[in-house]
Design brief:
alpha/beta; Rossmann fold; 2 domains; elongated
Length: about 400
């Protein structure tokens, strides 16, 4: 793992207390954890540290209490859920710093696991306050960050704390960083990127960064309409940011100068209303009627995109190609995702995907488990695709 110390750099931790920054911002229903995916993601790090003799203290935020104690945003209900995932007792400590927390930590038996209270109950957390980080540091001997999904934030528990204690990347963080390095840092070429979603405005920095980094840029979703309109195509009632036409053309010019091929659909699926199973037809992009909206990429374009993927070695995917939430406008996303999955399984393609809609789309296509790596991080994954430095990652660099 370049530039990062990982758990492999640690051996006997008997008598050591390790502060592990995890993402425990999990969905709750009636006061109970309703989806344990994030708990399962950090479990290997906790198990590994316990196996090396450490006492593990889990730091995390939950929701947005804005620096105040909000009982409904306590991490207390997460402790029993984490205990179930780990198959062992997990204690709960009512603060993440201060005399009370220090006494509670001192009373833990060696090798225990404890969840500390919501870091955002302290106003200094989101301000990256060094005094809060120092107070947290008094609880432990080492720091492990296992929360890539929070790494784009310079907060006390993600950035400042990593500069106070010896810092390491946890198993989940290390896997994520290695996958991202393989995808865009030092990838096997040719590299393709699929970028979809509703609006160009939300992915301007992503597109601008990618055209200089990838060989094939596949643009789908509502944002493809903006590029088509910029090229003079009448997109009817389609979702489209007409005011960004010049920006879209500038991105296309930058791509051409960089030798990046931009793929826009030349046939599309259109309908007069946005609803499931609405009457629809497949047309050439130049045949969209004034009262129609583009809701998916057409089958001929998907076939051409599949051919493009077959010559690529690496794929980065963020965002759906169409309105995948409603049938039949999920077809292009499902079809191309299945092609990517098949190429990955055959060993010819390294496929990395991320972002909330993307994970949902790949699960809908039934292929998420077949991709090389699927990141559950939203904002952090997007900022990485934008080429931005992630404070929580930079703080771990050796």
């Amino acid at each position: 793992m370049p530039n990062f110390k990982t758990l492999d750099d640690l051996s006997d931790l008997t008598g050591k207390r390790v502060l592990v920054r995890s993402d425990l911002n999990v969905p709750m229903h009636d006061g109970r954890v309703s989806d344990a995916t994030r708990l399962e993601a950090t479990a290997p790090t906790i198990r590994d540290l316990v196996a090396k003799g450490a006492t593990v203290l889990v730091l995390a935020h939950f929701d947005r209490p804005k620096g105040k104690r909000v009982p409904e945003m306590s991490l207390k209900p997460v402790a029993p859920a984490l205990a179930t995932v780990l198959g062992r007792d997990v204690a709960f400590i009512d603060d993440c710093c201060g005399a009370g927390a220090e006494a509670a930590v001192a009373a833990l038996p060696a090798g225990a696991v404890a969840v500390l209270e919501n870091t955002r109950f302290h106003a200094g957390e989101e301000k990256n306050d060094p005094e809060l980080a120092a107070a947290m540091a008094r609880l432990g001997d080492l720091y492990v960050n296992d929360a890539f999904s929070c790494a784009h934030r310079a907060h006390a528990s993600t950035e400042a704390l990593a500069r106070v204690l010896p810092a390491y990347a946890g198993r989940s963080m290390a896997r994520e960083l290695q996958a991202l390095e393989n995808a865009l840092g030092n990838p096997q070429r040719p590299v393709a990127a699929v970028v979809g979603g509703a609006k160009v405005s939300t992915k301007l920095d992503v597109l601008t960064n990618l055209v200089g980094r990838v060989d094939h840029l596949i643009i789908g979703g509502g944002m493809a309409n903006t590029f088509l309109a910029a090229r003079g195509v009448n997109v009817g009632k389609s979702l489209c940011e007409h005011d960004l036409a010049e920006t879209a053309l500038a991105i296309l010019d930058k791509a051409e100068a960089a030798g990046c091929t931009v793929h826009l659909p030349y046939d599309v699926v259109v309908a007069r209303e946005f609803k499931a199973n609405a009457d629809n037809r497949v047309v050439n992009v130049h045949e969209v009627a004034a009262d129609e909206m583009i809701l998916d990429v057409g089958p001929a374009a998907v076939e051409a995109l599949a051919d493009a993927l077959k010559i690529c070695k690496t794929l980065v995917w963020n965002g759906p190609l169409g309105a995948f939430e409603i049938a039949p406008f999920d077809k292009a996303t499902v079809a191309l995702a299945q092609v990517a999955a098949a190429l990955t399984e055959a060993g010819g393609l390294l496929s990395v995907a991320g972002g909330g809609d993307t994970v949902a789309a790949l699960n809908h296509a039934g292929v998420a488990a077949k991709f090389s790596f699927v990141s559950t991080a939203g904002g952090a994954f997007l900022e990485w695709m934008e080429g931005k430095a992630l404070p929580g990652v930079d703080a771990l660099k050796a």
